[in-house]
Design brief:
This is UDP-glucose--sterol glucosyltransferase. InterPro entries: EryCIII-like_C, Glycosyltransferase_28, GlycoTrans_28_N, UDP_glucos_trans. Pfam families: EryCIII-like_C, Glyco_transf_28. The longest helix is centred in the middle third of the chain and has 29 residues. This protein is of the alpha/beta class. The strands form two sheets. It has a seven-stranded parallel β-sheet, with helices on both faces. Strands 10-9-8-11-12 form a five-stranded parallel β-sheet, sandwiched between helices. It starts with a strand and ends with a helix. Helices cover about 45% and strands about 10% of the residues.
C-alpha cells in the first residue's frame, strides 16, 4: 500500500512527518513525503521517497501583521496549488494531508477517489474551549470562542480561493468554494488526527467524532547520531546551559537578538547555547556556544531551560525533554502554544517578540531556571508525552480504515 504524506510550510510544518513516515514504513507501507524542495534533504535523510511540491517559503516577506500574513499565505498557497495535482500519481492508495495541504488535497480525493486523512499539527476546528490558535491566546468565553473559530475558518478559506478554483478547473471538477468543500468534509465526518499532546490541548468535548488528538509525531533522526565533540565538550565544561533559538523566525534580526541573548545570559549568570536558525544568531565566548541544526532530542535533555519562539514542534520538544521554557512568540499560532506552556507551569509568562529586551529575558531566565515549580511541571508534562504514541495511533487509524 502506497501512502503519500503532503506537508508544506516552514521546517516545523514538515519535520514531524519524517518521523511519522518512518514509523509507517516500518509497519510495511510504501511511504512518500511530498514537500517543497527546501526539505528534500530532510526527507531523504529519513530514508523516505521525496516528491516535490511547487512554491517556496524562502524569501517571502518578514512582516508579522495579519494583513501581511494573509497576503503572504495567499501567494504561497496559490503557487502551491498550481502543481499540487502532479504530486499524486495513480499509484497512491492513501493521502495524509497536513493543515496547509488539506484544503487542496480534498479536491484530489474528489477527483480520483483516493481516500484521505487529515494529519494536523494545530487545532483548527471551532470549539468553545479556546479561541482560534491564529487570532490570540485569551479566551473570549465559549460562545465567542466558537464564533471566532468560525470566522478564522472563513479567513483561511479566502487564502485558498484562487488556488481552489484553478485546481478544480484542472481536475475537471465543477466549481466549488473552499468553504463549500470544507462543509462537505465536516458533514462526511472526515477524519482528522491531531499530532500534539493532550497535556497541552485536551480534546474539546464539543468537537465532532472524527476529530482526534493522538499525540506528537517526532522529527526523525538517526538513532546512532551523537552530538559533535565540540558540543559535548561545552556541555561537560560546566553546569547545564540555556538554549536560545528562534527556528525559522526572525530572519534579519540576528545581530540584535544575539546581543540581547548574551547580555541576558550574563545578567542571569548562566551559560548559553545559541542556535543560528534563520535569524543567524551567533556569539563567541567561554560561556556561549553557537551551533547549527542539531536534533532537539539529543540536546534538550542536557539543558537547564529552553528559550524559543513557541512553534508547535519546539514547544513539544522542550516538554518531551522535561525542560522548562521561556517563550518569545513571534506570530501565527505561537502565542497560543506559549500561553498553553505557561498555563501548565512549564514556562514563564510569554515575552512578546517585539517587547524582548535583555532585562526581561534575564529576569525570566532567572525565574525559570531557579524556581523548582517550573522544573516539576515540565518533568510531569514530559512523562505525559512519553506515554502517548502519536505514530502508533495514526497507524491504528490507517489499519482500521484500510482493513474496513
Amino acid at each position: 500500500m502506497r501512502i503519500l504524506i503532503a506537508a508544506a510550510g516552514s521546517r516545523g510544518d514538515v519535520a514531524p512527518y519524517t518521523g511519522l513516515g518512518v514509523e509507517l514504513r516500518r509497519a510495511g507501507y510504501d511511504v512518500v513525503l511530498a514537500a517543497t524542495d527546501t526539505f528534500a534533504p530532510l526527507v531523504r535523510e529519513a530514508g523516505l521517497e521525496f516528491r516535490s511540491l511547487p512554491a517556496d517559503t524562502r524569501g517571502r516577506g518578514g512582516g508579522t501583521g495579519r494583513r501581511e500574513l494573509m497576503r503572504t499565505a495567499a501567494a504561497f498557497i496559490t503557487e502551491l496549488g498550481q502543481g499540487f495535482a502532479d504530486a499524486v500519481d495513480e499509484g497512491t492508495d492513501l493521502l495524509l494531508l497536513s493543515t496547509t495541504t488539506a484544503p487542496l488535497g480534498w479536491h484530489l480525493t474528489e477527483a480520483t477517489g483516493t481516500p484521505s486523512i487529515g494529519v494536523y499539527l494545530q487545532p483548527t476546528a471551532p470549539t468553545g474551549d479556546f479561541p482560534p490558535v491564529v487570532t490570540g491566546s485569551r479566551s473570549l468565553g465559549r460562545l465567542a470562542n466558537r464564533a471566532a473559530g468560525r470566522f478564522a475558518l472563513r479567513m483561511a478559506d479566502r487564502v485558498y480561493t484562487q488556488a481552489t478554483a484553478q485546481l478544480r478547473q484542472r481536475l475537471a471538477l465543477p466549481a466549488a468554494s473552499p468553504a463549500e468543500v470544507r462543509r462537505r468534509q465536516d458533514r462526511a465526518n472526515w477524519p482528522i488526527l491531531h499530532g500534539f499532546s493532550t497535556a497541552l490541548v485536551p480534546r474539546p468535548s464539543d468537537w465532532r467524532s472524527g476529530l482526534k488528538v493522538v499525540g506528537n509525531w517526532w522529527p526523525h533522526h538517526d538513532a546512532t547520531q551523537r552530538l559533535p565533540a565540540e558540543h559535548e565538550n561545552f556541555l561537560g565544561a560546566g553546569p547545564p546551559p540555556v538554549f536560545i533559538g528562534f527556528g525559522s523566525m526572525a530572519s534579519g534580526d540576528g545581530e540584535r537578538l544575539s546581543e540581547i541573548a548574551v547580555r541576558a545570559l550574563r545578567r542571569a549568570r548562566l551559560r548559553g547555547v545559541l542556535q543560528a536558525g534563520s535569524a543567524g544568531l551567533a556569539a563567541d565566548g567561554d560561556d556561549v556556544l553557537t551551533l547549527g541544526d542539531v536534533p532537539h532530542a539529543l540536546l534538550f535533555p542536557r539543558l537547564a531551560a529552553v528559550v524559543h519562539h513557541a512553534g508547535a514542534g519546539t514547544t513539544a520538544a522542550a516538554l518531551r525533554a522535561g525542560v522548562p521554557a521561556v517563550t518569545v512568540p513571534v506570530t501565527a499560532d505561537q502565542p497560543f502554544w506559549a500561553t498553553r506552556l505557561a498555563a501548565l507551569g512549564a514556562a514563564t509568562d510569554p515575552i512578546p517578540f517585539r517587547s524582548l529586551t535583555a532585562e526581561r529575558l534575564a529576569d525570566s531566565l532567572d525565574r525559570v531556571v531557579r524556581q523548582q515549580a517550573h522544573h516539576r511541571a515540565a518533568a510531569s508534562a514530559g512523562k505525559h508525552l512519553a506515554a502517548e504514541n502519536g505514530a502508533g495511533q495514526t497507524l491504528k487509524t490507517i489499519q482500521q480504515m484500510t482493513d474496513g
